[in-house]
Amino acid sequence: MADDVKIDRETMGRLAKALSFICGPENACTVAMKAAAETGTPADAKKARTLFLKLKPGDRGAALEMIKG
């Protein structure tokens, strides 16, 4: 995910589901992504994105692959 890429609420919701499977439902990134998908606020989206970028590259890649469908 490049720095200039923006993702919509629907995509964040799909990422939250993928991250729940990969990292677990209680993972901070999973929780933040779910909250961002539900609220759609810029602050929640920024927090989710920041945590997503801090994940291991393999976890990020796996989540992105899962939502490609």
Would you list the SSEs in sequence order as H and E? HHHH
Overall average residue pLDDT: 91
Low-confidence stretches: none
Task: Report the major sheet.
Answer: none
Gap between N and C termini, in Å? 17 Å
Helix-strand category: mainly alpha
SS strand fraction: under 5%
Q: Count the beta strands.
A: 0
Proportion of residues in helical segments: over 70%
Please supply descriptive tags for the structure shown above.
single chain, globular, mainly alpha, 69 residues
Descriptive account of the structure:
This protein is mainly α. It has one domain. Helix content is 74%, strand content 0%. The chain has helices spanning 9-23, 28-39, 42-54, 57-67. Helix 1 (9-23) packs antiparallel against helix 2, helix 1 packs across helix 4 and helix 2 (28-39) packs antiparallel against helix 3 (42-54). The mean pLDDT is 91.
